[in-house]
Amino acid sequence: MSRVGDGVKIACITVLGSGLGPLVPGTWGSLVATALFALWWLVANELGLHRLVIEAIIVVGICDACTLSVLWGDWAIERFRSRDPKPFVLDEFAGQWIALLMLPIVPAADLTAFAAVVAGQFVLFRVLDTAKPPPARQMERLRAGWGILLDDVIAGAYANIIGQLAWRLTPLAGWLGLSLESGAAGG
Question: What is the pTM of this model?
Answer without folding.
Answer: 0.89
